[in-house]
Design a protein that fits this description.
CATH architecture: 3-Layer(aba) Sandwich
Number of helices: 9
Number of strands: 9
CATH class: Alpha Beta
Strand order of the largest sheet: 3-2-1-4-5-9-8
Strand content: 15-25%
CATH superfamily: Vaccinia Virus protein VP39
Distance between the termini: 29 Å
Largest sheet: 7 strands, mixed
Oligomer: single chain
Number of domains: 1
Low-confidence stretches: 1-5
Radius of gyration: 17 Å
Length: 227
């Protein structure tokens, strides 16, 4: 999603962000599970994992169970506080407030770096710089995973946003400006995605092995093997 700047920092953070996922309809919950299952299948017990845009910690427990350690970063201090409270018993889970395009980690620190649930659009940053920063902190032989929505998931995605709007989590949908993968709300929220051609364009000059995979007819993954 591309959003009004600062939207997730305060307006849709912590408990409100959790509510977004709690009220998701069954098909959306299937999509969310399929997405994290795809990631978990690539996690080894010896891995150090970095989760960008971790929010209130929705994926961190599952990642911590599969890995040596997981670091979750986000720009919202409110969401991170909630994550810290709910995940305090996980000794191999670490949290930090960071911008995904200027991470406070040294080079080659992680075996797996993930930016899922359409973070590549949601963070509202330069997408190529985001990819390069993820690759910088990933070890040779490691992987960086980025996901967005599949075009096939449009109707279910729009329904989910309508439910969020009906629950006061977003502004009302502006249907005159909504379509072709873009959702616009009257409060300034604007959600977009990228397609396979955009992924290919972004990674074309990186000279690294990559693949683009559609999962569950709902998400589109770009996986890059760091060399």
């Amino acid at each position: 999603m591309v959003i009004q700047k600062g939207y997730y920092d305060k307006k849709l953070s912590a408990e409100k962000l959790k509510r977004v996922y709690d009220i998701a309809p069954p098909r959306v919950k299937q999509y969310l599970q399929a997405e994290i299952d795809h990631v978990l299948a690539r996690v080894r017990k010896s891995d150090n994992v970095l989760d960008l845009g971790c929010g209130y910690g929705r994926t961190l427990e599952a990642l911590s169970e599969r890995s040596k350690a997981v670091w979750g970063v986000d720009t919202s201090i409110d969401s991170l506080k909630q994550a810290s409270e709910s995940l305090e018993s996980l000794v191999n889970c670490h949290l930090a407030q960071m911008n995904a395009v200027s991470l406070g980690f040294g080079d080659k620190q992680f075996d797996l770096t993930i930016c899922i649930q359409n973070g590549i659009s949601a963070f509202k940053v330069d997408q190529l710089e985001l990819i390069k920063e993820c690759l910088r902190v990933t070890k040779p032989g490691g992987r960086a995973l980025f996901s967005t929505y599949s075009e096939k998931f449009w109707a279910d995605r729009l329904e989910w946003f309508e439910i969020q709007a009906a629950n006061g989590l977003l502004g009302r949908i502006d249907y005159d400006r909504t379509g072709n993968g873009i959702i616009v709300c009257e409060d300034g929220f604007k959600a977009t995605t990228i397609g396979p051609d955009r992924f290919k364009s972004l990674i074309s000059g990186l000279n690294m092995k990559s693949q683009i995979i559609e999962v569950d007819n709902s998400s589109l993954f770009c996986e890059i093997l760091v060399e």
